[in-house]
């Protein structure tokens, strides 16, 4: 019989001991007990779903005014994720700040919007004056559009918006330590129900209203998605309804396009009209769960919506699907539907390659119906009043209603509900009280940052889907920014490109490098049009999503309509 040599047995025992020693002393940073206790006190005991990572990051960020590295390590441990996964998400979003454990975060952060409307309203002067006034304990930083363009300039003191901000009003807000969201004066659950609210949703559940007839009304109305893409809403419902169950819904309230604030305005006024539209769509399409993605800048809206959802769930007029409210973290790219879905899943908000489209393979791999808030806001009226009611509005051969977010050099900025096809001149004269005193129309952006820039003499083009493409512009989410003779179109285009460069997710080279390079070229007194056009073409052709594809639009508008400003 052959026996194993004694030294071989000894070697095996030594190897086992070495392995056990390595296991006890894992590579990489380990979570310390205090950090674990601090994290558990905020997020609760394990287990934790992977998709709530961003929600947990918000809890830590709100509590400690930043994300300490020790807490991220502990969070990875608690969620059984790699530290790389947690850190890559934490460093992707603008409203998260990863800080070293020995660093002391600022006592308060003040963000000053430097979007185009706020820039025109004096944002740069505000940014220059505030640090000296507020002192070293307060961090003052520029921020991309915060969705309050009609109140320009706007500062945000932690989570409290200061409209029409002055150094004095911001200092007062800092002194008062406003740290909760803004309050809203809205129609609450009881008032909405008393005025006939949720009757249609209830009728659908009881069989008194027919789902197919509702779907047909949506198709007949001609309502198109009002988030910017303009896809027919009824057709989208039918496509998703034909997919295999379970089906999900994602509601996009991440309106980060500079100049856009209509979803916030409607949410602040009448949240349950939107929620009833959500329930009607969920019933007709056969939705099992709904995820509402609300941009982080809308703190007051989030507090209010959470309360109104609780009131609805406490006294439901009909069976409700699962409804979860998710919080963005400061990333314009998450307004793109697939990037939003990645964010809801707790990941970096990077757009997906398509196909497949999210109607087939969307949230958590399931068929997903995606809408912005305003599209759902009109569902109840369209069904109850009939599709002919919605399509009866319109001018200059167009049909329907449009909610224009108007800001800039007008007397009465705000959300203007007007007939589709109205011209810029009609919109300013009839709905905005005309131009400000001492200002005459010089140019306008018909569709926010992405929609291009048109000169004053083109003020009679009908504003609607498909009417602006011949001029290399588009209406998008109908964000209209009005410029006067005191402004320069080239400066507006540069502001837009700086926004795109700041907000690029970095996933694809044409957008990541192209937007940054375009900013450099546009800062020159004389533009290198040949190089800019090369960049324009590459970004438009090769970018993964609409951010990079549409980024050249303001540049091309200047080259086409304002050439005298760049030579």
Write the layout of secondary structure elements.
Elements lengths: L5 H19 L8 H11 L9 H12 L2 E2 H11 L3 H8 L7 E2 L8 E6 L2 H5 L2 H12 L3 E6 L11 E3 L2 E3 L4 H10 L12 H6 L4 H8 L4 H11 L11 H9 L5 E7 L8 H8 L1 H15 L1 E8 L4 H16 L7 E6 L9 H8 L23 E5 H5 L1 H7 L1 H5 L9 E8 L5 E6 L4 H8 L9 E5 L8 E2 L23 E6 L4 H15 L5 H14 L6 H14 L3 H5 L1 H10 L6
Parallel strand pairs: 1-2, 3-4, 7-8, 7-10, 8-9, 11-15
Antiparallel strand pairs: 3-5, 5-6, 11-12, 13-14, 13-15
Helix pairs in contact: 2-4, 3-4, 4-5, 7-8, 10-14, 11-12, 21-22, 21-25, 22-23, 23-25
Could you walk me through the main structural features you see in this protein, from its secondary elements to its overall organization?
There is one protein chain. This protein is of the alpha/beta class. Helices cover 44% and strands 13% of the residues. It contains 25 helices and 15 strands. It has helices at 6-24, 33-43, 53-64, 69-79, 83-90, 116-120, 123-134, 167-176, 189-194, 199-206, 211-221, 233-241, 262-269, 271-285, 299-314, 337-344, 373-377, 379-385, 387-391, 424-431, 489-503, 509-522, 529-542, 546-550, 552-561; strands spanning 67-68, 98-99, 108-113, 138-143, 155-157, 160-162, 247-253, 287-294, 322-327, 368-372, 401-408, 414-419, 441-445, 454-455, 479-484. It has a 5-stranded mixed beta sheet. Helix 15 links the parallel strand 8 and strand 9 (322-327). Helix 7 packs across helix 8 (167-176) and helix 21 (489-503) runs antiparallel to helix 25. The radius of gyration is 26 Å and the shape is globular. Residues 1-7 have low confidence and may be disordered.
């Amino acid at each position: 019989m052959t026996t194993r040599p004694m030294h071989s047995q000894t070697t095996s025992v030594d190897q086992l001991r070495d392995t056990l020693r390595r296991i006890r002393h894992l590579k990489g940073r380990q979570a310390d007990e205090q950090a674990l206790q601090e994290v558990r006190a905020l997020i609760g005991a394990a287990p934790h779903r992977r998709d709530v990572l961003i929600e947990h990051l918000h809890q830590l960020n709100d509590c400690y005014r930043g994300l300490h590295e020790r807490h991220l390590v502990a969070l990875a441990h608690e969620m059984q994720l790699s530290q790389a996964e947690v850190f890559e998400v934490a460093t992707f979003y603008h409203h998260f700040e990863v800080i070293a454990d020995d660093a002391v975060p600022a006592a308060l952060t003040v963000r000053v919007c430097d979007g185009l409307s706020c820039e025109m309203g004096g944002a740069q002067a505000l940014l220059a004056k505030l640090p000296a006034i507020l002192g070293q304990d307060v961090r003052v930083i520029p921020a991309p559009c915060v969705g309050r363009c009609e109140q320009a300039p706007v500062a945000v003191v932690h989570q409290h918006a200061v409209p029409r901000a002055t150094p004095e009003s911001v200092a007062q807000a800092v002194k008062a330590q406003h740290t909760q969201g803004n309050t809203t004066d809205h129609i609450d659950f009881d008032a909405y129900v008393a005025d006939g609210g949720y009757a249609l949703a209830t009728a659908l559940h009881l069989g008194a209203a027919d789902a197919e007839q509702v779907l047909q009304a949506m198709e007949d109305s001609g309502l198109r998605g009002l988030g910017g893409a303009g896809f027919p809403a009824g057709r989208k419902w039918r496509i998703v309804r034909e997919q295999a169950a379970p089906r999900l819904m994602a509601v996009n309230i991440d309106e980060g396009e500079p100049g856009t604030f209509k979803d916030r305005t409607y949410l602040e006024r009448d949240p349950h009209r939107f929620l009833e539209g959500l329930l009607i769509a969920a019933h007709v399409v056969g939705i099992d769960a709904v995820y509402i993605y609300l941009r982080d800048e809308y703190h007051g809206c989030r507090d209010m919506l959470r309360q109104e959802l609780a009131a609805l769930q406490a006294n439901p007029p009909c069976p409700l699907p699962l409804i979860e409210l998710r919080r963005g973290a400061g990333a314009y790219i998450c307004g793109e539907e697939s990037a939003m879905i990645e964010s809801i899943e707790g990941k970096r908000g990077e757009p997906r390659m398509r196909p497949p489209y999210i109607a087939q393979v969307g949230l958590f791999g399931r068929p997903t119906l995606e809408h912005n808030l305003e599209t759902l806001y009109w569902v109840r009226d369209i069904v109850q009043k009939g599709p002919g009611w919605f399509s009866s509005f319109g001018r200059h051969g167009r049909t329907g209603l449009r909610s224009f977010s108007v800001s800039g050099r007008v007397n009465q900025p705000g959300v203007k509900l007007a007939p589709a096809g109205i011209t810029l001149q009609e919109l300013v004269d009839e709905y905005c009280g005309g131009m400000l005193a001492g200002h005459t129309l010089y140019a306008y952006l018909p569709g926010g940052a992405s929609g291009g820039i048109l000169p004053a003499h083109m003020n009679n083009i009908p504003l609607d889907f498909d009417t602006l493409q011949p001029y290399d512009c588009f209406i998008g989410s109908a964000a209209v920014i009005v410029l006067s003779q005191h402004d320069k179109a080239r400066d507006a285009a540069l502001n837009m490109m700086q926004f795109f460069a700041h907000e690029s997710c970095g996933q694809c080279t044409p957008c990541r490098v192209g937007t940054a390079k375009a900013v450099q070229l546009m800062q020159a007194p004389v533009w290198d049009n040949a190089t800019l056009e090369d960049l324009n073409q590459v970004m438009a052709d090769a970018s993964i999503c609409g951010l990079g594809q549409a980024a050249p639009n303001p540049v091309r508008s200047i080259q086409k309509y304002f050439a005298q400003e760049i030579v």
